[in-house]
Write a structure and sequence with these properties.
Three copies of one chain form a homotrimer. The first copy, chain A, is built from twelve helices and 19 strands. In chain A, strand 4 and strand 5 form a beta hairpin. Chain A starts with a helix and ends with a strand.
Chain lengths: 426, 426, 426
């Protein structure tokens, strides 16, 4: 049987070659593949639709693009790597000399082997991205440039999935589907999200409702919020933006704007109790869709879970961000961490001891009957749960207070609930 | 004239030989002796009475117990030390061989000279406690075991005393009376409590009402709370569990569950301003009746004042905890510290300056009339009291704010009250 | 054209020789000179008027005072330095020997060259202040003492000025006018206050109303508060006591009693972002009219802005505190710092982003249209303002949150207001 990390990696391999952007058939193909795994709803929003301060742009599709030298040799070819074309490049067809061509080329002098990732969504433009080395080999002369793209009225495509739990209160996961052949940023997010959704679909008896959003970055989150805002504000109690979550770096967490919401507390507690090394980032250095989810007036309690943060690894936004830096084992580690966070949120409730004073534990076989000086039975965590669960603070607070991972408290809480010594405060 | 420390020590000498337990005549004898000092009320609660999650157990009394070897020699004898019998041992009479006897013996390999203190209140059992050295001298063979005890329906005995003050609001002191011949833990608590009560009875014009509880540990506190809970919750503003308060170690304070109540603030302020060395303990390491007084739903603002905390000194719960580790001078030091805490609580009120702007102190002879550069009169504390007593914060807050022991502020407050410059906010 | 620092210094030169006290013609002369600069209202309060806990004392005036030796030589002469006479000295005329004279002499053994400043406002007394060196030269013998003063019913004189802004809410500046020939403490305060008032009068379109109080220390602040308290409590949102603000020491700020009011936040932010070295003082070491403005029941949000704090420089309250320690450049620096604080208070409002989610900045030419990895345009502060201005916290909070001086945010806020992306919450 193939392990889950490998399955995740296989999905990423299927998705990697597709040329995605904020609109277009690449996004549709991507969502169709995801729908083989989880029953997402795919929605189309027409170009020109007003969403908050923005308008849905024209839809962009591209079938071919290249630069040919005077010998008829393709010196830059979209078919080699879809990063070679500036995202949203308008159609172009013509001969130009090298000087003019240079104005349309993008490269990275400091990373001469890598093709950069460049877009121009909201201003008509065309261009090619090349490695600095490739650029240096271009000789003076006339080049034939062909960009076979369309940029016309169409629609923006996104998907969501709602997995109902016993409570209407929701945990939201959002990730983006607008990057072309870039692996960690951003196919790791959609892949991890899809497998987390699959897990939650198969898991029975979820307490919370889970919502997954697959949409282009920025404009997609804005679309989603503009159409679901009141409901989300009423029901979302925690959530994550998932991005850059497939490399082998230590876990990173960027907290929500308010910084001390449930998701912030849970994630810090889980990382602190399970990882030797991890990184916390302030909202000041935000850079993904938490910018929309946490904006003033929207204020959803959402943080970002990552491995190495965007912008912090050298391959970021270049052709170096490919499948080579993704490890199946690390994809699965990321998934497991999210499952654990979900489990903690599910079980982190406010409990209250049902009786006054300490209960008589020995009559329930929960306490030694003979009192000696050197008792070895560790009844302290149970006594502490009973002493601090006062119906006011949640179990996470109790766990931090008594210095134990909340995960270790769950079986004890279960036993106390079964013995009628603890009750859940709704 | 005999000093007070010696009087306290003499009382402890009288109480020490009595075999106490959570019920029985040992407790009654103890309370009768205490009633020679202070007018306590002695209450009997019948076996089987339901108290919160507990039932009052049968009453235990013991007149004799020994183990005799085949030569007719008593090798273990209750009359030598009442710790030799496991507390609440059921009656037994019979011959058994050494192997079987061993299952009923308790000793401390790490402290081979000391007899441990062991009880089995809630499960029928019998046993003997011996020093490890004594145990090693037992030869193979048959032993005659006699435990002349009764364990039948009867009652649990406790006492309280209420000393009325001008206010119905109460300060509660609780200590326990269930330990047999153990000195620091626990005869120091009852003795110090008795002499503090005596002092408060003799002192005139107490502002607060003072309540003293003498009861067996755990079950006694639970009995008391189950019968007085609503009244105590309404009226108790501070309180102490008194335990292990007769040895010569530095003072120790274990704060209430909430950790920042009046008693916590007062005790920390007093210790900080009067002791070079003292110890603060978190509620996490609780272990005496604060477990009941501070339990969720009960939530009384009560901390524990101790010298060396239970479990932290080697003689704890062994025959080494005897009168040798008690010093009359230290008993008196403990009493004095409590008197000081009481005094601070009595006088720590919310005050408010009666006039707007700074008062003209010189016309009341409270300020120098000539203003020179190097004024030597220290009017600063008085000016600070007037500047910070705004009717919102109590004097303790003011004392901490201005960095002075509250005890040094009392005479100044008195003078300001007499001059009509300060009023008390009730 | 004469620079403003020189103009300020020139005013101080005119005021320096006048013999001021808490009442009398010296104060009137001083206020008349100030009224050449700003249109202050001058108010007289009759002797005996009850003000809070105080009574307005009799008015003191002095025309001459000296001590003559038996040779007819004036060995101490008020005409040399008005500090030579103890403030509020009652009239005296008579011959006394040296021993008796010594009881009326004040000097500073540790600063033998300097004449101390001594007063006795509220107890009838007479005396002379001399340098220790001068005192040592007095030979045994009989001296003729003449104090040609009057101490009779009259009035206390103070002035105020209100500069109306669009809002009724006020910023208050208070300084004192009761010191004789002392420069830093206290002519720097009145001179800086006068020039700040002049600046605010000439500046158009003030948002807040500005109030200036020129009155004798302590009794003057008490008079002012007793007659304006309700209005000030309702309207003053911030204010400064100005004292010791003309020397070349680093800026010092003594915070208001509550310690975290607007003026405290603004001043700390401004000093922190503009000065390499500055000093913060707790209200515990207060010593000027903040004692009245911040007293319990009055509670105005007022701090003290100083250069070197009173009592902290060796010339304090001696003849060494003269024009030599005042520098025109430093007077102007103090004025500029106050203008900056005023500017920050004027512009520190609560703002709210007007749209949900991030606005589309590129369509307003506020954001680069092409997204590349190494963007150089610094849009971060603008994005941060939009991300943190949520209508709840003021701009000062935002500035501290994002780690920028608020002064750098003003032009960005202006641009965002102009673009309709930000609104002011009143």
């Amino acid at each position: 049987m193939v392990n889950i990390g490998t399955k995740m990696y296989n999905l990423m391999e299927r998705l990697f070659p597709i040329c995605r952007s904020i609109t277009g058939d690449g996004v549709r193909k991507t969502l169709n593949i995801l729908s083989e795994y989880i029953p997402i709803n795919i929605i189309e929003v027409p170009s020109g639709t007003k969403v908050f301060d923005w308008d849905i742009p024209d839809e962009w599709n591209i079938s071919d693009a290249y630069v040919e030298n005077s010998d008829g040799k393709k010196v830059i070819d979209f078919k080699d790597n879809n990063l070679h074309v500036v995202g949203y490049s308008e159609p172009f067809n013509g001969k130009i000399n090298l000087e003019e061509l240079q104005n349309h080329l993008y490269s990275l002098p400091d990373q001469p082997d890598l093709i950069p990732y460049v877009t121009s969504y909201y201003k008509r433009h065309w261009g090619f991205c090349v490695s600095e080395n490739q650029r240096k080999q271009l000789n003076k002369g006339v080049y034939y440039v062909k960009i076979d793209s369309t940029l016309d009225s169409g629609s923006l495509t996104y998907a969501d999935l709602v997995i109902k739990g016993r409570s209407q209160k929701e945990i939201l996961f959002s990730t983006y589907t607008c990057h072309p052949s870039l692996a960690n940023n951003e196919l790791s997010g959609p892949v991890v999200a899809a497998f987390l959704a699959k897990y939650l679909l198969e898991k029975k008896n979820n307490y919370y409702t889970y919502r997954f959003v697959f949409a282009p970055e920025t404009i997609g989150a804005i679309v989603y919020l503009s159409t679901h805002l009141e409901y989300l504000k009423k029901n979302v109690i925690a959530g994550y933006v998932l991005t850059c979550i497939g490399d082998s770096g230590p876990f990173s967490y960027l907290h929500s704007r308010h910084g001390d919401t449930l998701v912030d507390q849970v994630t810090k507690h889980v990382l602190n109790n399970t990882e030797k090394e991890y990184r916390l980032y302030d909202y000041l250095v935000r850079g993904s869709d938490e910018r929309q989810y946490c904006a003033p007036g929207i204020d959803l309690p959402i943080g970002s879970l990552m491995r190495t943060k965007y912008g912090e690894y050298p391959e970021y936004h270049t052709s170096g961000d490919n499948l080579d830096i993704i490890d199946p084992i690390e994809l699965e580690r990321s998934l497991c961490k999210l499952k654990l966070c979900v489990d903690v949120i599910e079980k982190n409730r406010i409990y209250k001891t049902t009786i006054l004073g300490e209960p008589m534990l020995s009559k329930r076989d929960l306490y030694p009957t003979i009192s000696t000086k050197n008792c070895t039975l560790d009844v302290k965590p149970m006594m502490n749960i009973l002493a601090y669960c006062d119906g006011k603070n949640d179990l996470l607070w109790v766990a931090d207070k008594i210095g134990k991972p909340i995960m270790k408290l769950f079986p004890i809480v279960e036993e106390l609930l079964n013995n009628g010594l603890l009750e859940t405060i709704e």
